[in-house]
Design brief:
Largest sheet: 2 strands, parallel
Shape: globular
Oligomer: single chain
Strand order of the largest sheet: 1-4
Structural class: mainly alpha
Number of strands: 6
Helix content: 40-55%
Amino acid sequence: MGLTVNTIKTEVVCQWSANIPSTPPTFTAAGEQLSVVPSFRYLGSILSEDNTIDNEVQNRIKQASAVFGRLRRRVFQNKNLHLRTKVCVYQAICITTLLYSCEAWVTYSRHIRALEQFHIRCLQRILGITWRDRVPHSEVLSKTNCRSIEATITQHQLRWLGHVVRMPSNRLPRRVLYGQLHHGRRSAGGQKKRYKDQLKTALKK
């Protein structure tokens, strides 16, 4: 028994280290040309050709917003439920959806800002307050006993880092984490943040 590739459903994403060329390369399988797309979904995450998580973050916010909306009347606006119960449901379902696969994210300030805005907005709705009440974000987090999104992502990444470090040296995740490129060099000018840079920042914090 062999693997048969469905060329109609198979798509290719080329991730470039520098500028994206105007004419994408061509790939063929079984004599048929495969579609080259700017992004596609793989294992629940969106992979983009520009090596950023911009589309992934927007997709995570969209998915978490849909989950919050489905539970809004039955749970978050239910006066018969205790605030602690509402927050537990929010963290177990909405936050889990929002930060799916965040262990592998390389975040910039724009990503954290968008995620924090969604997080605070949801907590404000759970508490029944609006921006007119002028309640600081720190007080919103304190009343709900929640961490900020930045702190939560850092915690998840450090937990994953510890898991990888404790792996045997022959395991692929550990080899990739400690691996170095033998050829090539980074281009001049401003550099994109690497995953190792993200982990170093988390460890310093």
